[in-house]
Amino acid sequence: MRHRMLFSSGRLLAAVGMTISLVGSAAAGQTASAPAPFKIPTPTYTPAKTPWGDPDIQGVWDNHSTVPLERPARLGDKKTYTDAELANMRGFRAGSAGRTNTASSIDQLDRVRAYDDFWGQAEGVKDNRTAQIEDPANGRIPPLTPAAKKAQEEYLATHPSTDEGSGGDVTHWDGFDTRTRCIAIQVPAGVMSYNSASYIMQSPGWVMIALERLNTRTIPIGPNAKHHGIRNWLGDSIGHWEGNTLVVETINFLDRPSQGGGGSVVPNGISQGNVKLVEHFVPVGPKRLEYYATLEDANTWTQPWTFMQPWEKDPIYQYDQDGGKIGDPEPYQLFEYACHEGNRSIGVNLKSANDRIRAAKNPVVAPAAADKSTTVAALMGLSEADIRAKYGAPLATNGPRWQYSTTDGVFVVFVFFENGKVVRVRPDNLALDEIAKTGK
User: Fold this and answer.
1) What is the pTM of this model?
2) Is a pLDDT exceeding 90 seen at residue 91?
3) What is the predicted pLDDT for the residue at 15?
4) Whether residue 327 sits in one domain with residue 267
5) Is the sign of the CA dihedral 156, 158, 163, 164 positive or negative?
6) Contact present, 93 and 117 (Cβ < 8 Å)
7) What is 240-287 written as a DSSP string?
8) Who wins on pLDDT, 69 or 30?
9) Which domain holds residue 228?
10) With helix as H, strand as E and coil as C, how does 168-193 read?
């Protein structure tokens, strides 16, 4: 329903004049305090064209890098490393520290993670920057608004971190990040230690971007492209060409946090529901593309922010195992990402967490201690010669750690030595006759 209101001409002009004055003052204040918008560099390289005339940026592009999203505070305003500094830094390694040929303490060797160097290439896309974030100039994500900070704290109070070593117990499936649940990686995606290449395919009016790990985005391109208006984890994207640069605008993300996890750039506990994402795919050479992502949400951050990842097309990588090369250098290849965490780890984690909670609420009297003479506890203090005589030569060694297996072949058994004597065995609840003899 429309309402009509009558004013005298003098009062109306006065009101309009006051409004213009106030708006002008506010705009002047914003202009004085707001930083200048970040400008995406204009490419000087001209790529080949597709048969229908669009710039051709198709192919497999990798973004592996040692450069963190945010600049470490200790580096201050230092934006780049010198070549000499880069040469002194350890090259890219996937997963955790390796399991062989590396000097490690017993405690380090006693904490074996899922992946070692074998699963990732030894190098990455060359980049001498100290942070991926280009704007703000300090290389850091802008501060959260007070409302966003409060919402994050409230969310994290009921959704503890699922990151390794966090110590939090997650008691419901929705407490796990979308990567672990095999749903999606955040858009935009950060650098991941493995399975993080992007395969770009083009057809008239469309671009498809298939991230090796989980995500596939099909994006309409051109002046007639329209947002579909359906909220989802990957958002609602449309694109257009600005010269040789592909520009993609994404809105309509789900209005809930994705719980962070691998490949995330938006911190845990922050919803992307109001985020406007603008991506620029800037070709700078026949095998090099600069990917810029600008995130804007005035309800979440005090200013927009932009990060850049250099992408390399069909890079040739050398794979290794703790510095020992494996095979010949080969082009990066995409493999099926058969996500299995949602089938196994979530159920196991929920069961163990709920078991701990129930045990804490209803403690039970511990059973009588087992006879240590029949368990691996009896191995403590034995010499290397004693262990060889009992079980044979180890299957493998890594410094002070010897490897055997259980008789059923299910578990790896580690025996740790210090000063020539056994000081630790893992698992520590095995019977002596459960360790298989090697016959060596």
Assistant:
1) 0.74
2) no
3) 38
4) yes
5) positive
6) yes
7) EEETTEEEEEEE-B-SSB----TT--SPTT-B-TT-EEEEEEEEEETT
8) 69
9) 59-331
10) CCCCCHHHCCCCCCCCCCCCCCCCCC
